[in-house]
Amino acid sequence: MVAAVLAGLSLLSLLTCGYLAWGSRRGGAGEAPRNLLGEEPAAGAPRSQPHIIFILADDQGFRDVGYHGSEIRTPTLDKLAAEGVKLENYYVQPMCTPSRSQLITGKYQIHTGLQHSIIRPTQPNCLPLDNVTLPQKLKEVGYSTHMVGKWHLGFYRKECMPTQRGFDSFFGSLLGSGDYYTHFKCDSPGICGYDLYENDNAAWDHDNGIYSTQMYTQKVQQILASHNPRKPIFLYVAYQAVHSPLQAPGRYFEHYRSINNINRRRYAAMLACLDEAINNVTLALRKYGYYENSIIIYSSDNGGQPMAGGSNWPLRGSKGTYWEGGIRAVGFVHSPLLKNKGSVCKELVHITDWFPTLITLAEGQIDEDIQLDGYDVWETISEGRRSPRVDILHNIDPIYTKAKNGSWAAGYGIWNTAIQSAIRVNHWKLLTGNPGYSDWVPPQAFSNAGPNRWHNERVSWSAGKTVWLFNITADPYERVDLSARHPEVVKQLLRRLSQFNKTAVPVRYPPKDPRSNPKLNGGVWGPWFKEDEKKKKSDKSKGANKQKKSKNKKKAS
């Protein structure tokens, strides 16, 4: 009876009004520098293209924001979200590279070849060069484009670097993680290197051992201070926090000494520092004349990792999984340009939607030959209209086939359920294969000094199960599997998966390259693939062969 009721419920939209004024709060995560131009921008200057500030947090759990009931204080995020539009049906990908690639291209992973795992430091792999990026499209219409923070879209060739993919400047890290103070990263024993860049070179001269959240904030402030606010700017700020390793300046632990779990305590301090940093970015936008014509978008790149202090409660699963806890993210839009300020959007929004939405807002053009998977959702967010999106392909990973009991028979001859995949169509969500760690991790799980799974909730299913169906609108916590009750719905979604799969490009997941070792590159992680040298060698060999042939012809004559 409960399952029938869950299956029949429909989506409800919730709007709450009440616009609040932003109040300044001073903090230490990067104090605003003086305007490097030495002048304040003229108020009310004519502008049409908005300044776009996209802030991407790393591994922030769904519960880990004040307005979702967290014990961690996030006054800046709470206030910005309350004055803007909270996205409460917002989806990303379960890991770093996939979310970032879909943000910057507007395409699903199956259409870029990055549908398996992440890009590893030693892999000769990057976001395919034939994909047009968001900053490239914004540059076409006059935007100044700057990136600060974590790239994680590959760097084995110079052409893969952020400055070659549309950004005028880049300051940050190339890898997926690293020490917050020293900026060193070991991929495996003996394979270690430095990972902080200023444009295309190691930023040795700019490294003063500052905690990365604060260092990135200071760089953002410098960019805003030196740029002319009458000209549009796209600022992509991809913070390292709150990804492991769990490190934070001591003073941010002050309010969290009562948290016994050391990982959760460190995580809380890191998030507190991040919240303060975003406050300082917002103050800089006001100080230098950007705010009134700005759009601030905040998003996490994936769900939290409970073993590293993150909480997705009451959602199921964690980072790296296709349960809601891995892909349903904290997200909001804050802007004076919003029409429905102080509202909650429960319409379906996906990270691929930012590409067409922002290009349209910037008065840019989307080429007809670019086959996007994202939709323009500005009217959905700003005015409360229905979303043009009715489905999301969470992913199809043909390499990840760990569901030993998966089969074509279990997929009604439509789909091989050994393949890890997930799709959302309207209210329905289907998962096949092995979706990943499936526990619910309540707040009590963080009550002890060490990791504790005693409080975790689990559901035991029959051996060999490889198909799940949920009505996510009615059951966002994925507690009632409806696959046996609604086989026709399962078949419909399997057919939709099959249709998507016909459009997939081959997976790009090459083996590691020993030439990637930082020891061979001055102790720095960076491009190692020397295509030019290979061309020179081949050209020399071709030239030598031509000379030999001409000599032989002369001898013959």
From TrEMBL:
The lineage of its organism: Eukaryota, Metazoa, Chordata, Craniata, Vertebrata. Residues 50-362 form the Sulfatase N-terminal domain. CDD domains: 4-S. This is ARSJ Arylsulfatase. It comes from the Eukaryota. Residues 543-557 have a biased composition (Basic residues). The keyword Hydrolase applies. Belongs to the sulfatase family. Residues 505-557 are annotated as: Disordered.
